[in-house]
């Protein structure tokens, strides 16, 4: 823009100078002839004066209305009306003619007569050197623009390169590449931002390491009371309750050992997601298991929870566990989510409140796991799904585990009100691992778990009668 602002006016000035130069030459030639006409009207003397102007412009000079007979010297180009106009005005005029412009200057030669000196100026003489000047100015403008663009690009590259490097490092860090580090460069603000990003990455690594060490240490501390529980369980009789307690303690030991081994593994900073048992989208990381059968998990866990429900005089049912319902969720993760839901029912509803667990394999390619109870329900479902927020005095982690399991299974979780029991209804929807439609046997509301839930009550009644 600066180049155009200066060079276009300069080109117009060059064009104006060429025109003025052509008229100046015409005025010079006219002045020689006018000087002779003021002295004599002799044609020979006038011709010699014209010849004295020299150069190729000699042939373009002519004199009109010379003498009483209207003698003309040279070849004229102006029209008679233009000659008459110049003679009447008694002042130099210009007239546009074919091929150029004629400069006409009247001269009083006495006896009331006015001769007119004409100098023809061709069009190429009016623009002599203008095209070359325009080409030169255009080349200068292009050179200036190209040079300014190159210099500006080199100057901006220092800023944009640092900004792109910072943006790329921030994006890689957001994806979980914790080994990303920057060499602070560029403007001071970008260099400070790069340095701050390096410090933040170091702090994240340190915090993750401390977190893993803390979890491993706390898990290791649980071994002591767990060992005491296991020893106490060994002293129990061989009843079904004692076997159930020993199995639960053994399962807990296995989970603690897995947790300690996982936390003792070093953090893989080159991994695209943090190696912390959780995916970048918030879902629980897979423990290496490819999937599980929802119905099988429900049957296994209800074997445990039915006994607890029986001790609290709760009626519990398992529905739809006869047929397979495969999903892409680790068995341990789904079992933990189911334990969290049933544990919430046991802890936060009055004794005697019933609950049921239902499994439905739908034809649209999804498996639905539903846990319902007859308690007061969940007043704020959205708050309950937020990690660490429950509104009921709990840790707020149980439903978050359920949410992450649903995400891992490419599904979702919904909280509402049970239509049959009147309390809370938590529905986990997961993608079917084998979506081909299969015919399932009729569902029964009184399965194996329903019978098991009544056995503790019967044993307790027999004990009281004895």
TrEMBL record:
Domain of life: Bacteria
Annotated SUPFAM superfamilies: ATPase domain of HSP90 chaperone/DNA topoisomerase II/histidine kinase (SSF55874), Homodimeric domain of signal transducing histidine kinase (SSF47384)
UniProt keyword annotation of Cytoplasm present: no
Stretches the record annotates as Disordered: 265-291, 433-466
Biased composition (Basic and acidic residues): 265-281
Keywords: ATP-binding, Cell membrane, Hydrolase, Kinase, Magnesium, Manganese, Membrane, Nucleotide-binding, Phosphoprotein, Protein phosphatase, Stress response, Transferase, Transmembrane, Transmembrane helix, Two-component regulatory system, Virulence
Membrane-topology annotation of the record: Multi-pass membrane protein
Domain HAMP: 157-209
Necessary cofactors: Mg(2+); Mn(2+)
Compartment list: Cell membrane
Entry EC no(s): 2.7.13.3
Domain (Histidine kinase) ranges: 217-434
Catalytic activity field: ATP + protein L-histidine = ADP + protein N-phospho-L-histidine
GO MF: kinase activity
Keyword Kinase: yes
EC class name: transferase
Protein name per UniProt: Signal transduction histidine-protein kinase/phosphatase MprB
Biological source species: Dactylosporangium maewongense
């Amino acid at each position: 823009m600066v180049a155009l602002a200066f060079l276009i006016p300069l080109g117009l000035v060059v064009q104006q100078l060429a025109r003025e130069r052509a008229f100046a030459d015409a005025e010079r030639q006219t002045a020689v002839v006018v000087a002779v006409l003021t002295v004599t009207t002799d044609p020979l003397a006038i011709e010699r004066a014209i010849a004295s102007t020299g150069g190729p412009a000699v042939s373009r000079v002519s004199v009109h209305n010379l003498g009483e007979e209207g003698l003309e010297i040279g070849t004229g180009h102006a029209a008679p009306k233009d000659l008459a106009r110049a003679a009447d005005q008694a002042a130099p005029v210009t007239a546009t003619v074919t091929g150029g412009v004629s400069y006409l200057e009247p001269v009083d030669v006495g006896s009331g007569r006015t001769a007119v000196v004409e100098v023809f100026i061709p069009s190429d003489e009016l623009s002599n050197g203008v095209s070359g000047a325009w080409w030169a100015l255009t080349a200068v403008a292009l050179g200036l623009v190209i040079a300014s663009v190159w210099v500006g690009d080199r100057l901006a590259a220092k800023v944009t390169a640092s900004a792109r490097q910072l943006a790329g490092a921030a994006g890689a860090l957001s994806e979980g590449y914790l080994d990303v580090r920057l060499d602070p460069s560029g403007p001071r603000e970008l260099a400070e931002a790069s340095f701050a990003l390096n410090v933040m990455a170091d702090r994240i690594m340190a915090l993750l390491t401390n977190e893993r060490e803390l979890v491993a240490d706390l898990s290791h501390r649980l071994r002591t009371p767990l060992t005491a529980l296991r020893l106490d369980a060994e002293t129990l009789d061989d009843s079904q309750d004692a076997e159930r307690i020993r199995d639960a303690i053994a399962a807990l030991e296995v989970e603690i050992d897995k947790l300690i081994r996982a936390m003792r593994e070093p953090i893989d900073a080159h991994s695209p997601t943090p190696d912390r048992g959780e995916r970048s989208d918030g879902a629980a990381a897979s423990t290496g298991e490819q999937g599980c059968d929802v119905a099988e998990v429900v049957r296994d866990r209800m074997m445990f929870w039915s006994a607890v429900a029986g001790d609290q005089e709760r009626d519990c049912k398992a529905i739809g566990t006869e047929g397979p319902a495969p999903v892409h969720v680790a068995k341990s993760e789904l079992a933990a989510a189911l334990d969290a839901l049933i544990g919430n029912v046991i802890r936060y509803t009055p004794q005697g409140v019933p609950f049921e667990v239902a499994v439905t394999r739908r034809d649209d390619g999804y498996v639905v796991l539903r846990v319902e109870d007859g308690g007061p329900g969940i007043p704020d479902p959205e708050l309950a799904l937020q990690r660490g927020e429950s509104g009921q005095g709990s840790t707020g982690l149980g439903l978050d585990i359920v949410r992450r399991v649903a995400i891992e299974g490419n599904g979702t979780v919904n909280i509402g009100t049970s239509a049959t029991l009147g309390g809370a209804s938590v529905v986990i929807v997961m993608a079917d691992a084998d979506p081909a439609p299969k015919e399932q046997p009729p569902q029964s509301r009184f399965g194996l778990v329903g019978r098991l839930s009544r056995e503790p009550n019967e044993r307790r009644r027999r004990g009281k009668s004895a």
